[in-house]
Predict the structure.
Amino acid sequence: MNNNCYRFLWPNAVISDSVTVVTVGGVNTLVIDVPAAVYRNRDVLELIVAQAIPATATVSMPVAISIGGVTDPVYPVVKCGGEQVTAQRIKTRGVYRLVANTANGGANFKLVAGPFCAPAVPAGTIPATA
């Protein structure tokens, strides 16, 4: 997908290259791959998830970012308070504002806009149980 098409909407738009489930440190993780680039501390990205979420993803699966197809290492996606984002928060065609964080010797991407800073709502079922 051409990342330049969305630049008129968001100058820092990044369109995902793939969304897969990868085992990271023995834990199945929803990994969103972004184009190869250098993401510096405090860089802001408007991530557009262009691919379908795999059917093997579970709601409680942690979410991480890979860069340029390299899945070692991956970078966790965290909420405003530092808690791990789970797959239930990620939607196909969703747009997520992320800030690269490389402080304190670690690296992650922090969600900084939207309902992601609020507590998670447990996944319901249809039909609803009485």
Q: What stands out?
A: The CA atoms of residues 33 and 70 lie 8 Å apart. The chain has a mean pLDDT of 83. The two ends are 45 Å apart (CA to CA). The longest strand covers residues 70-78.
